[in-house]
Amino acid sequence: MSSIKEYLSQDHSRCDELFAKMEDSAGKSLSDAKESYEEFAKATERHFQMEERVMFVEFEAKTGMTEGPTAMMRHEHAQMRSLIKQMGEALEAQDKDKFFGLSETLMILMQQHNMKEEQMLYTMAQQHLSAEAPRVVDMMESMIVE
């Protein structure tokens, strides 16, 4: 069983790979990128849901910190959701410049966000939730997001 930090960091890597696949596909043809965009968007939303509905809730319950790092991460998730939605709209409109402008902004935001989570929040979560880690990872792993 992996730790909370290992599990979520590995999922960051998986989402990053899907992002790269989507960008590569869009570089060849926006109309052919729809499937890879949807795969990336779905995986990223699942990641956000695992954090927001499981790990953040468990962390906040254990530490009492509700206005700290988890509040900031939720705010950044909202920003990224908006960018992902706009990217989908740019794909539909076949607007390559807009799509890649948004994807560049998203990439920078994701890199900064993931670094904060991996270096700070996941470490804190693992420290506070070490006894509950197997249960928390199981809950995240079994999540289904429609």
Automatic annotation (TrEMBL):
Q: Which residues form a coiled coil?
A: none
User: Which Pfam families did the record assign?
Assistant: Hemerythrin
Q: Its domain of life? A: Bacteria
Q: Enumerate the InterPro entries for this protein.
A: Hemerythrin-like
Domain Hemerythrin-like spans what residues? 6-125
Could you name the Gene Ontology cellular component terms for this entry? plasma membrane
Q: What is this protein called?
A: Hemerythrin HHE cation binding region
